[in-house]
Design a protein that fits this description.
With about 450 residues, the protein is α+β, with helices and mostly antiparallel strands. The chain has 9 helices and 22 strands. It has a 6-stranded mixed sheet.
Length: about 450
């Protein structure tokens, strides 16, 4: 007797999704509530659990298909499944079809993402044989393009799955001489193209036919990427966007972090970061300039006496924007814990829809990626977004002397329909004052 697996409810107003990846294959044993597939909606990625224990019998849809809530996508048969030893699984993961088509390579991953403090590099770390997952199309392409051995890479995705960033990082380590990888044979990808492995040096006297190595590939936009594109374009078409800039001396914040970071982490179990200072500074500034924390609803302006900060965090499939609610009433530790928790969920793909809904103001930190300056776009119906950037030493004048200080550019993009230029500049100056003199945050100035 087979049990149907249906698409679960995906959240309010979401009626369908895209089957992003099968996590189990026909014949695999599954436990009750064990994820067998991942679904991608226009907001979040969710996993589909098996309703019963048994054997994965049949997949009724293919990866990339659109499925409606309640639709049957697979069947689970009774039984325990064929036993496969870790050694056999490892052998399967390195097996390559000479024709190169119709076969999905597998790999072994560790359950934990690599950290800088570890002595082994991500590419060198041994991976346990009991965590074997199927490569996604993007990761498969990256493995073939960079000629790396996926079985020697730690996966930082959910359940230790490999991400494209993991493959690229391993490839960079390999180029720098950290890892010696065997040359992989040529293999045809899903599109029928052949990715060739490294070839012997060419005779400089031979003419190279560059045209034969030009490649193209078309990949359908994910639902999340389509939604991001739609909302960003909607913001440009609807709001009167304008950006104002300022710079801030980060000396006081850096010194405060250096002095108290160990005590802070010991007491609260979380590192003291820059974001807590900026969230508190925004809360102070928004009290003085409430229009920046307001929104337009038809012909009315909605003012909020609370600050729900949307904080952009990086995820394998793009930026996600969870909301830190009532930030004006939170302590530094509560803010840092909330942001760290959201960051981990984004990386694991477990952010819930309700955790990303709402928000009255957004902070985007492009500085973690090395951005010097940018003009962020607001997240409708919000009226403003603060862009943080990288910190670098620059010459500034202090007391008539030219000195080097750690400076950061700040950018405030705002909806000019609601926020006047004077208000935007005042808001940014208030943030600058609070960051350069954090005592203002403590005594509520």
């Amino acid at each position: 007797m087979a049990t149907d697996v249906q698409v679960p409810a995906l959240g309010e107003s979401i009626t369908e999704g895209t089957l992003a990846q099968w996590l189990k294959q026909p014949g695999d044993a599954v436990a009750a509530d064990e994820p067998i597939a991942s679904l991608e909606t226009d907001k979040v990625t969710v996993e589909v659990p098996s309703p019963v224990a048994g054997v994965f019998g049949e997949a009724l849809v293919k990866e990339g298909d659109t499925v409606a809530v309640g639709a049957v996508i697979a069947r689970i048969d009774e039984g325990t499944g064929a036993a496969t030893t870790p050694a056999e699984k490892g052998a399967e993961s390195t097996k390559i079809n000479p024709a190169g088509a119709g076969e999905s390579p597998a790999l072994r991953n560790d359950d934990h993402a690599p950290h800088a403090a570890e002595t082994q590099s991500a590419a060198e770390a041994p991976a346990p044989s009991d965590t074997i997952t199927t490569l996604s199309p993007a990761v498969r392409r990256a493995v073939l393009e960079h000629h790396v051995d996926p079985s020697k890479i730690r996966g930082s995705g959910k359940d230790g799955r490999l991400t494209k960033d993991d493959v690229i990082a391993a490839a960079e380590a390999q180029k720098s001489g950290a890892v010696a990888q065997p040359v992989a044979p040529a293999k045809a990808g899903a599109s029928g193209q052949v990715a060739t492995s490294a070839s012997p040096p060419r005779d400089p006297g031979l003419r190279r036919d560059d045209a034969s190595e030009r490649k193209e590939e078309r990949v359908k936009m994910s639902r999340l990427r389509q939604t991001i594109a739609t909302r960003l374009k909607e913001a440009q078409n609807t709001a009167a966007l304008l950006t104002t800039f300022n710079d801030v001396d980060m000396t006081a914040v850096i010194e405060a972090r250096a002095r108290y970071k160990d005590l802070f982490e010991k007491k609260h179990g979380i590192r003291l970061g820059f974001m807590g200072f900026f969230v508190k500074a925004v809360a102070l500034a928004a009290r003085d300039v409430p229009a920046v924390n307001a929104s337009i609803d038809g012909d009315e302006i909605v003012y909020h006496d609370y600050l729900d900060v949307s904080v952009a965090v990086s995820a394998p499939k793009g930026l996600m924007v969870p909301v830190v609610r009532n930030a004006q009433a939170m302590s530094f530790a509560e803010i840092e814990q909330a942001i760290a928790g959201y960051g981990k969920k984004a990386k694991d793909g477990t952010l819930a829809l309700e955790e990303m809904q709402g928000g009255t103001f957004t902070i985007s930190n492009g500085g973690v990626f090395g951005s010097l300056l940018s003009t962020p776009i607001i997240n409708p119906p919000q009226s403003a977004v603060l862009g943080m950037h990288r910190i670098e030493e620059r010459p500034v004048v202090r007391d008539g002397q030219i000195v080097a200080r750690p400076m950061m550019y700040l950018a405030l993009t705002y909806d000019h329909r609601l926020v006047d230029g004077r208000e935007a500049v005042t808001f940014l100056v208030r943030v600058k004052e609070a960051i350069e003199d954090p005592t203002r945050i403590l005594i509520d100035l």
